[in-house]
Amino acid sequence: MSNATGRTTYSKRKSAYFEKLKTLISQYSRILTVQVDNVSASQLQKIRITLRGRAVLLMGKNTMIRKCLKTLIEDGQTHLEAFVDEVVGNIGLIFTNDDLGGIMEEV
Predict the structure, then answer these.
(1) Predicted structure pTM score
(2) For residue range 43-96, what is the model confidence (pLDDT) as tens digits?
């Protein structure tokens, strides 16, 4: 659904973000949080290109991430409980099935 300016409405974007996060959590077995203070958009893009095919970097509002995680926990995914406290500050989430050591070296 778009408004007159062609932008997707806020609630639709939130729903799409929730579905994307839910899909990534079910698709990947490992989640890595990365601090992105003082990281430029071009640096983030280079990281995304480097990780392509092996991992996915997801950025978003912490409040939205926490809300999504809490909803998933209520739905029975209790293994995410400890992760909620990690969502603080300017962070990104890297989802992967690969070895975290290799991913951390590239980031």
Answers:
(1) 0.81
(2) 999 999 999 989 999 998 888 889 988 998 999 888 888 888 888 888 889 999
Q: DSSP states of 9-69 as a string?
A: PHHHHHHHHHHHHHHHHHH-SEEEEEE-TT--HHHHHHHHHHHTTTEEEEE--HHHHHHHH
Give me the sheet containing 91-96, strands edge to edge: 30-35, 91-96, 55-59
Contact between 57 and 71 (Cβ < 8 Å)? no
Question: Which amino acid type is present at position 96?
Answer: T
**Contact partners, residue 22, CB within 8 Å, separation at least 6:** 68, 72
The dihedrals phi and psi of 94, each to the nearest 5 degrees, come to: -110, 120
Each residue of 85-96: b (16+ CB within 10 Å) or e?
eebeeebbbbbb
pLDDT at 100: 84
